[in-house]
Amino acid sequence: MVRALQMIVLLTLVYDNVPRNVYVFMKQCLGVAGMDILEGETLIDNNFSFKDTSPLNDKFEMFGMDNKNFLLNSGSYFLIQIIMLAIYLAR
C-alpha cells in the first residue's frame, strides 16, 4: 500500500501539468509515502561513500531526492532486498 502511494505521489515528478491544489495535496501525502521504518539511508551513509551529485531538477529536490544516486534515494528498499535475499539463501 505504501509503495502504491509512493508511485502516485511521485507522478508529479513526471507530469508537468498538475494543478496547484493536486500538487499541494501530493506534497502533504509525501510524509506518509516517504516513511522509512528501517532507516536504510543511515545504514548506507555509514557504510558506503558516493560521489556527490546535484538533483535532476527542482522538483526532485523538493521531494527529498537531493542527488541522482538510487541507493541514497530509495530509503530502506535496498535493505529490504538484502534481508529477503538472506532469508531465501538461509533455507
> Helical stretch count?
6
The total tally of domains equals 2
Helix content: 55-70%
Largest sheet composition: none
Low-confidence stretches: none
Beta-strand content: under 5%
How many beta-strand segments? 0
Order of helices and strands: HHHHHH
Question: Averaged pLDDT, please?
Answer: 78
Distance between the termini: 28 Å
The structural class is mainly alpha
The rounded Rg comes to 15 Å
Write down the overall geometry: globular
Commentary on this structure:
It is a single chain. With 91 residues, the chain is mostly helical. The chain has two domains: 1-35, no CATH class; 38-91, no CATH class. The protein is built from six helices and no strands. It has helices spanning 2-14, 20-33, 40-47, 58-62, 70-73, 77-90. α1 (2-14) runs antiparallel to α2 (20-33). The chain is globular. The mean pLDDT is 78.
Gist?
This protein has helices spanning 2-14, 20-33, 40-47, 58-62, 70-73, 77-90. The protein is mainly α. The chain has two domains: 1-35, no CATH class; 38-91, no CATH class.
